[in-house]
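Next comes a concrete protein, fold included:
___
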Amino acid sequence: MSDTRTPRSELGAFLKARRAELTPAQVGLGDDGTVRRVPGLRRDEVARLAAMSTGYYTRIEQGRLPASATVLASLVRALRLDGAQRAYLYELAGQAPAAPRRRSARRVRPSVQRMLDGLGHLPALVLGRHDDILAWNAAAAALYRDFGELTARERNYVRLLFLDPVMRDLHVDWEDAGRISAARLRMAAAGNPDDSRLAELVGELSVRSPEFREWWSGRIVSDTAHGTKRYRHPLVGPLTLECDTWASPDDPHVMFVVLTAEADSRDDEALRILASWNTAPAQPGTAGTPSDRRP
């Protein structure tokens, strides 16, 4: 996210990046025999697929013309956009209804913390806007690290993923995890272009992580809600866990994240061993009331 960019210019940059990812064969266009100076589709090919003039499409991509809902629908089809990419395109164009921008809570209710603790050996987190870590259980502390040792500013999952060597080494598929995290931030940026906290986070990661800088500029977007995660834990070795997330009914920017393994499997047994070896106090990070472990 840059202070010099407008939503219209960002939309144009996204269109340009997306057409560079596609080949004529992928969208049903035959080879016309010409030598391509740049990878991907040309502007005239996108225009043809979207049933508009090349000049009209060019002005949209250059940020000189707004895109109507009808034009956006044509571009979604032409560029083969998935659900996350479509949502991002409409956000940039100002066509999608904006989600309420009330500030996410920085604390969770005691009942939510009890729910996390009740999951026992299954690691669970509550992530707020920008993937700030708002709450966690002892199993999550055993798998990742004791988040209670960090300041509120440091307790951000994306920041830890890119800047903390321990978190980086823990993730076997670190590049995939990093790309998805950068993509989730870009989705957040589309709906909140004036968010100063997000701008600060993106700025720091862009300066300190070349990988984040590359993936952010690539304009990949994602709203992945589940998947498989592989870890390399120093105590129990390799772990393959299923990760599921759910949005809070109170605030769509707050996500519940739970990691599980099939019952009685080697991975489930490893999680139980981790939980039994965890020497952190009942309140991870500090001894005291439940609020001690939250920002």
User: Anything to note?
Assistant: The radius of gyration is 22 Å. Confidence is low (pLDDT under 50) at residues 97-105, 279-295.
